[in-house]
């Protein structure tokens, strides 16, 4: 056997074994020890090996040196695919431009030519005991029908308000100014049976601004105590969401505090062009199903400078949502920042174009998570988590396609939500879990094109952190610790982007599901 054939055989062996350094040694041996310039097949094999290992810079350099100026076949196609995926994920962004169609004045200093509609003027008492629901409804009807009006909840008072729907459409340039405290009835038995899942529900609005230094307090402690997650002898049932904005567009929410929600704190549903700034969410870490900000069936949503501590996901993004950006998010306690859950009861779930840029998570049960049930269909595609710092977090990076939040075991199924083109970049911190990164993907619908760049996760106790992969394919560049070589294994190589592209025609389920307690 001559030298080129020996080099080819050595390269092939190293490629199939995933032996990167050994493959590079054999390749260089031909050039520098035997003076034989590698041929097309040698370049193809080593570039394939480097590409699978995520060493894209080295692979690209060799690609340019190859005879004919390029590589044909699997190696070149794979490398080009990787660069295309990288370019798409790195350029993925959502416009943060302010959506408000008018300037909002500061009500401590000026009215700005607006009509002030004070709930006190409609009979609200504000002692935290008297029922002010009817006064709020009357004030809303007036503010909603009056151009350039301000629905004012004044500071220094506490208003007891029962479940209420504040419906639009409204006259132009409405501001909801909450400077006081709005509290919910504490007793679940006293809740309006016609609105079992809602407390303060705003719908069919356009160009409305919610702002102020006030508090929305769900008085949720008795709801939590009656939860089947707190006590398995209790029946499982739904509970109200503190603040809901649905079927609305061009909405701004700024500065409010939402706390002690009965279940979810703040839901954005079936809406578009929503901007949320400086909102705080606060619930005990053991309060069940109290998601901080839950986005469902919505597009073009930006969350910025929000501090969230709760008993469930700090942020959850579910079916029918796209173009979602989170920036400068503090999370803890809570279950992390999650996409999902999706695919429950064999439903279709679609989420795309999600960016988390700059976050700090402390002592959460998950970090950045994608969760889907077995069964179902649809996809999660085009997601970038970057510039995230974690402190004492369990499961810092996790894809869980075997999610089961049910009293009974969930059966493994052949269908699943397809997950692809997910980037984790500049992620660092400490993990409680031995498995700092976990990619538990569907056996029959594997995850594809997972990209890791500059990841450094250490065990808090100093022991070695690990990465777990099941049916997951991707590549790394830059420093990645712990190693994620399992993403590059050859048995996962045939997973192609086309599998996801073929799902493009799938329509999301029309039902925008919010938490149903299990």
Automatic annotation (TrEMBL):
Any one Gene Ontology molecular-function term assigned to this protein's record: polygalacturonase activity
Main location (coarse class): secreted
EC number(s) on file: 3.2.1.15
Localization: Secreted, Cell wall
Record has Ribosomal protein as a keyword: no
Keyword check for Cell wall biogenesis/degradation: yes
Similarity section: Belongs to the glycosyl hydrolase 28 family.
Name the record gives this protein: endo-polygalacturonase
Species name: Corchorus olitorius
């Amino acid at each position: 056997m001559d030298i080129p054939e020996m080099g080819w055989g050595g390269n092939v062996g190293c490629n199939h074994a995933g032996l990167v350094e050994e493959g590079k040694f054999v390749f260089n041996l031909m050039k520098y020890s035997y003076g034989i310039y590698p041929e097309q097949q040698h370049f193809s094999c080593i570039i394939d090996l480097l590409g699978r290992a995520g060493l894209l810079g080295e692979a690209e350099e060799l690609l340019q040196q190859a005879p004919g100026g390029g590589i044909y076949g699997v190696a070149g196609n794979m490398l080009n695919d990787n660069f295309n995926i990288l370019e798409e994920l790195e350029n993925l962004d959502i416009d943060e431009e302010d959506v408000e169609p008018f300037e909002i004045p500061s009500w401590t200093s000026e009215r700005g030519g607006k009509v002030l509609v004070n709930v006190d003027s409609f009979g609200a008492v504000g002692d935290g005991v008297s029922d002010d629901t009817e006064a709020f409804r009357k004030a809303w009807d007036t503010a909603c029908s009056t151009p350039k009006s301000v629905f004012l909840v004044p500071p220094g008072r506490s208003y007891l308000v029962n479940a209420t729907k504040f419906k639009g459409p409204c006259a132009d340039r409405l501001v909801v100014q909450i400077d006081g405290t709005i509290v919910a009835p504490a007793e679940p038995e006293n809740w309006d049976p016609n609105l079992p899942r809602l407390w303060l529900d705003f719908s069919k609005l356009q160009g409305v601004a919610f702002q102020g230094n006030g508090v929305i307090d769900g008085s949720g402690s008795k709801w939590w105590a009656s939860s089947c997650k707190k006590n398995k002898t209790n029946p499982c049932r739904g509970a109200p969401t503190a603040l809901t904005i649905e079927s609305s567009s061009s909405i701004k929410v700024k500065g409010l505090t939402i706390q002690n929600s009965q279940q979810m704190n703040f839901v954005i549903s079936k809406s578009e062009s929503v901007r949320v700034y400086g909102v705080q969410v606060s619930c005990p870490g053991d309060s069940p199903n109290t998601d901080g900000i839950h986005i469902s069936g919505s597009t073009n949503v930006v969350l910025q400078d929000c501090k969230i501590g709760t008993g469930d996901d700090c942020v959850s993004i579910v079916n029918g949502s796209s173009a979602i950006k989170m920036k400068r998010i503090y999370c803890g306690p809570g279950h992390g920042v999650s996409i999902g859950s999706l695919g429950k009861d064999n439903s279709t779930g679609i989420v795309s174009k999600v960016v988390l840029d700059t976050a700090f998570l402390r002592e959460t049960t998950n970090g950045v998570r994608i969760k889907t049930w077995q069964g179902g269909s649809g996809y999660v595609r085009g997601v970038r988590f970057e510039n995230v710092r974690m402190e004492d977090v369990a499961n810092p990076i996790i894809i869980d396609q075997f999610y089961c939040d049910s009293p009974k075991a969930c059966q493994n199924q052949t269908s699943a939500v397809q997950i692809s083109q997910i980037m984790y970049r500049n992620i660092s911190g400490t993990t409680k879990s031995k498995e700092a990164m976990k990619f538990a993907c569907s056996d029959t619908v594997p995850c594809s094109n997972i990209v890791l760049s500059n990841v450094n996760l250490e065990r808090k106790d100093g022991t070695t952190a690990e990465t777990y992969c099941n049916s997951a394919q991707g590549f790394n560049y830059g420093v990645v610790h712990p190693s994620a070589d399992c993403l590059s294994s050859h048995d996962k190589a045939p997973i192609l982007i086309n599998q996801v592209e073929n799902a493009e025609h799938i329509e999301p389920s029309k039902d925008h599901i919010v938490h149903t307690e299990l």
